[in-house]
Design a protein that fits this description.
Elements lengths: L1 H21 L15 E7 L2 E6 L9 E7 L2 E8 L5 H6 E9 L8 E7 L13 E3 L2 E2 L13 E5 L3 E7 L16 E7 L2 E6 L9 E6 L2 E5 L3 E8 L7 E6 L3 E6 L11 E10 L9 E8 L17 E6 L5 E5 L1 H10 L5 E5 L7 E6 L5 E7 L7
Antiparallel strand pairs: 1-24, 2-17, 3-4, 3-12, 4-11, 4-15, 5-10, 5-13, 6-9, 6-11, 7-8, 13-14, 16-23, 17-22, 18-21, 18-24, 19-20, 19-22
Length: 371
């Protein structure tokens, strides 16, 4: 009898397992209409603003000189010697500068005395300080040359005599320093500034049988661009800083309460009109109405992209978190693009505004109500 009971229980157990295999526990509890991801491609920017702003270059470790591809850069330097005894006995002085990284022989520049005071923290191509403009954009200077320099070595120098010591004497109001102005050679190169930990600009004063070295009290580079921007271009600039604002109106394209699985922003660039070895561009969330360089944007970038001169012409950047913020919060003022090294390099990246940038979004709709 006991054997029959055990056999019966075994048969019941096997049949129960079979039922569960055919109809797993909880399957009838899973919704049959799970939303499937949706792909939206080719969202173009509704508004684009591209603008230039003056940037502070006085605190950087490189100073740029030269002219190429519609970009020109000049260097401002000011030395100060307060020891009247040294100046009284000095008969000459030498400025030594060292080139940074790769460079090209044959680049030449002239050195002139500046005739207007300037502030390295705010000086630019058009302004000498926050509240003062140059009379001549690019710097006010006496056209009497202090020196002409042609770069053929990694370290170059030029010498001037006591007739130009007004460039050094701190007791004289005309000590506004000097400006290096490009002369020959189709390139732009850089030298070490006073902020560099090595090989920085140096002044050597010769007096009697002695010498004394000085570092600049101020130095900066100022940059101009004469590039004519095309109607279908967005220009990003370093040295001559250019920024861009983009607005993608997604209200009529993406429904509310969705989950952004992935959002990709695709850029294309024009290598023929660009001038750079590489450029990294940061993307920021705009926090208010547009007002060019006064536009309020979040201090931390949401993404970045980098182009190299030998790259293909497209770059994809993930901005999923930003698009999800626009959907959740609804404050979509667009995004701002700025170059990473806009106040320490000299370069230009031209983006294609005709076919790019475009925004592509993968999203999941919310579950159907009642499930």
């Amino acid at each position: 009898m006991k054997k029959h009971i055990l056999f019966f229980l075994f048969i019941v157990f096997i049949l129960g397992c079979k039922d569960k295999m055919n109809d797993p526990v909880g399957l009838d509890e899973i919704p049959k209409d799970i939303p499937q991801p949706i792909y939206v491609d080719g969202i173009v920017a509704d508004s684009i603003s591209n603008f230039h702003l003056e940037v502070n270059t006085g605190s950087k470790s490189r100073l740029w000189i030269g002219e190429s591809n519609s970009i020109e850069s000049r260097i401002l330097v000011r030395f100060a010697v307060s020891d009247s005894a040294i100046l009284a006995n000095a008969d000459s002085a030498k400025v030594t500068l060292s080139l940074y990284g790769t460079w090209k022989k044959g680049v030449g520049f002239n050195v002139f005395p500046l005739t207007r005071s300037w502030d390295e923290t705010t000086v630019g191509w058009k302004r000498s300080s926050t509240d003062s403009q140059w009379s001549n954009p690019g710097g006010d200077y006496d056209t009497t040359k202090i020196a002409s320099v042609v770069i053929n070595e990694s370290v170059v120098d030029f010498t001037f005599n006591c007739e130009e010591f007004s460039l050094l004497d701190t007791s004289l109001s005309e000590n506004n320093g000097m400006i290096f102005v490009y002369d020959i050679g189709d390139t732009i190169l850089s030298i070490y500034s006073k902020e560099s930990t090595s090989n920085s600009l140096k002044l050597t004063v010769f007096y009697g049988d002695s010498t004394k070295d000085y570092s600049p009290v101020s130095d900066a580079f100022i940059t101009n661009s004469t590039y004519i921007q095309g109607n279908n271009e967005i220009v990003m600039g370093e040295g001559y800083a250019m920024r861009a604002l983009l607005l993608f109106k997604i209200d009529n394209t993406l429904p509310p309460n969705i989950t952004i699985n992935r959002a990709l922003l695709t850029f294309a660039f024009n290598p023929d009109n660009s001038y750079f070895d590489s450029m990294t561009v940061f993307i920021y969330r705009v926090m208010g109405e547009w007002n060019e360089d006064s536009t309020d944007y979040h201090p931390y970038s949401v993404a970045f992209f980098t182009f190299h001169k030998d790259d293909t012409t497209f770059s994809e950047t993930d901005i999923t978190s930003l698009v999800q913020y626009w959907v959740n919060v609804g404050e979509n003022y667009g995004l701002l693009l700025r170059a990473k090294n806009e106040n320490s390099f000299c370069s230009r990246l031209v983006l294609d505004a005709l076919h790019k940038p475009i925004l592509s979004v993968y999203y999941t709709p919310p579950p159907m109500s009642g499930h």
